[in-house]
Amino acid sequence: MIQGYGFSYNGQHSSAFGIYAKKTTQSITPALLAQATSVPRRPGEWYFRTDIAERWIPVDIAYIASDLASFRPDTRAIAAWLSPVNGLQPLIFDNEPDKTYYAVMDDGMGTGAGTQATDIAQIATLGTGKIIFRCSDPFAYAQSQSSAAFINDIASPSIQGTYETYPVITLSLTGAATSIKITHSSGAFALVNYSFAAGDTLTVDCTRALVTINGATNMQALDITSDFPALTPGGNTLTVSPAGVSTGSVAWTERYL
């Protein structure tokens, strides 16, 4: 009996294919790329910043076929399940069921060698191999959204994740206004210039850098000086001005390194 755990990918659990994870290898952080340059006649280098790159998740697997005749047909079904043609798909491990990655199978590990090829060694009805998942978006996501209401034009979302996340802010106008400004406690803001009337709905989607008014995209209403504020781990404050002309809420999905 193989001891291990499973994972879900593309909406299907690995156990449906007789696959179990023997071992996964995850780094503490995704790949980190330091941006620096050397300076003539100066020791060391000049450091600018560190960028977060993609995440790789190798999974050593064991596969049990029901009989010898099923082994090859089953591996073709596994190939269809894991096919990178489907693009990025949700990946959830049984040992961390409250986190979701978005991944595609890619065995190249960034080298291009053997990309999209995964071998399974067969011994009778037992197969062993390795699946390598590439997460172009390197973060793990909570399974559900969180939200906070604006009370007296102020929302106070508390972020439990370990990395900043982008909110979706939805406001329903209760009065007229020539502009709406949403300001984060960091000073970042989104300013929307529009002749708002009671009954209008404004959505500032910071995840997609998108502004909609009454369901229609309206990027020309976004002031050129605007940002799309991110929510940082811990306490945050969002303030709407002018005061007293809207109600609404802010929604977000926690992100984790």
Average pLDDT figure: 86
Report the β-strand fraction as a percent range: over 45%
The CATH architecture of the largest domain can be named as: Beta Barrel
Distance between the termini: 34 Å
Q: Could you estimate the helical fraction of the residues in percent? A: under 10%
Number of strands: 24
Q: Rough shape?
A: globular
Q: What's the main sheet like? A: 10 strands, antiparallel
Q: In words, what does this structure look like?
A:
This protein has 257 residues and is mainly beta. The protein folds into two domains: 7-140, Elongation Factor Tu (Ef-tu), domain 3; 144-256, Jelly Rolls, CATH 2.60.120. The protein has one helix and 24 strands. The chain has one helix at 71-82, and strands at residues 7-9, 12-13, 19-24, 32-37, 46-52, 55-64, 89-93, 99-105, 120-123, 126-135, 140-142, 146-149, 154-155, 158-159, 168-173, 177-184, 189-196, 201-205, 210-213, 216-217, 234-235, 238-241, 246-252, 255-256. Strands 1, 2, 3, 6, 7, 8, 9, 10, 11 and 24 form a ten-stranded antiparallel sheet that branches. The protein is globular. 25% of the residues are buried. The model is unreliable at 111-117 and 120-125 (pLDDT under 50).
Q: Which helices and strands appear, and what pairs or packs with what?
A:
Blueprint: E1 7-9, E2 12-13, E3 19-24, E4 32-37, E5 46-52, E6 55-64, H1 71-82, E7 89-93, E8 99-105, E9 120-123, E10 126-135, E11 140-142, E12 146-149, E13 154-155, E14 158-159, E15 168-173, E16 177-184, E17 189-196, E18 201-205, E19 210-213, E20 216-217, E21 234-235, E22 238-241, E23 246-252, E24 255-256
Antiparallel strand pairs: 1-2, 1-7, 3-6, 4-5, 6-10, 7-8, 8-10, 8-11, 9-10, 11-24, 12-23, 13-22, 14-21, 15-18, 15-23, 16-17, 16-22, 18-19, 19-20
